Amino acid sequence: MAVRRVMPIIRSEAVPESRAFYGLLGFEEVMNHGWIMTLAAPSTPAAQISVMTGDKSAPVSPDMSIEVDDVDAAYAVMRESGAEIVHPLQDEEWGVRRFFVRDPSGRVVNVLSHR
């Protein structure tokens, strides 16, 4: 299993203001589903920040995302370790397969792969 990117998620109702603020640092909008917007640095597309009002299909909102090449393997490793799974492994309508796990500091991590 390899990590493809790591992205912080900022919970906020100030999505347009966040777009403008991070735009001052060179970020551009690359995805917007209404409830989550992702900004990326054009010179380094894997350098990303997401701004989320609330997760569409999960009971909690994650603090960060980690994209891996094999989410099923990541899920198996986390389950075997005894880590707390806070949102089960599932396919989402927007093209990702993901689960949420709580890290030792209490942060919720969205672990995903694109289908």
From TrEMBL:
Residues 2-114 form the VOC domain. InterPro entries: Glyas_Bleomycin-R_OHBP_Dase, Glyas_Fos-R_dOase_dom, VOC_core. It holds the Pfam family Glyoxalase. Gene3D superfamilies: 2,3-Dihydroxybiphenyl 1,2-Dioxygenase, domain 1. This is Glyoxalase. It comes from Streptomyces tirandamycinicus.
